[in-house]
Predict the structure of Tetratricopeptide repeat protein.
Amino acid sequence: MVKPAPAKLLFLFFFLYTFNISTAQDSARHFFTKGYYNISMDRLAAIEYLTKCIEIDSLYTDAFFHRGICFFKEGLYESALNDFDRAFALNPDLPIIWMYRGFTYRNMGMMDEALNSFSRYIIHNPKDTTAYSYILKGKMKYELGDFSGAVEDYDMALKLKPFEEKYQYYRFTALYESESYNKALKAVDRLTKINPDFYGYYFYKGNIYSKLNQLDSAIFMYNISIIKNYHNADGYFFRAQAYQQKGDLKKALEDYNTAIELNPDDGSYYSKRGNCKFQKSDMTGACEDWQEAGSRGYYEDFDKVKKVCK
């Protein structure tokens, strides 16, 4: 008959068992801590420490998550996605992982996957009051050419942060690109109320009025833009085009000249000035400007050189 193990042996076995588990947990925690604090200083060292942590404890969710962030920052996107997947499998209550997956896919140029990931983040975290998730989702839609969809997401962000200038600007650009000019005009009106001193918003108003063929209003807005920043060459350049559309070629030519003085390297300035000179029957001046535009890499009107110029 086998005698039962003495109580002291049972105690020793239990002690050693629990000691080994405790020691392994301490070691995993130790390597995780070292890895975590190296993320901002030495990511390769952080990856090494976090890997050791995972080798000891393959269920250490935070180690996978933070190693994934390290891989992402190192440009190792496939490895990052693998770690994010593993972390999410271990803890589905970490919706922030979807945000990082979105960043990773975006950097890989996989915009549809990025958009889907940002959408999943919002689904898992609908009470996110930072509005950033909606902005990221809107940006992805914008880059994919879905300007109306981008506006919808920017609207959601602005419900959370209605006075955030940057978010209002994103919404304006999406409306402008979707050619919703009347809505874009209202959007930029809000921007001028938030920041009335920024010349760019008046410049954008001028562009919208030009698109709507309201040339006097466009010129008025370009005037304000130039008053607020008379070094901005585009203000003169676009006002010149508005004057040219009105048929005031003298003022248009003056503005083209000023724009070129401020920014002599932009080929489009010479090309448009050439068109203005052509309308004034200055063939020599027009040909010189078209050729100058071509020498600076701008060829939109260069075919006129062959047709008009000797």
Notes: Confidence is low (pLDDT under 50) at residues 9-22. The CA atoms of residues 206 and 220 lie 7 Å apart. The chain is about 75% helix and 0% strand. Residues 7-38 form the longest helix (32 residues).
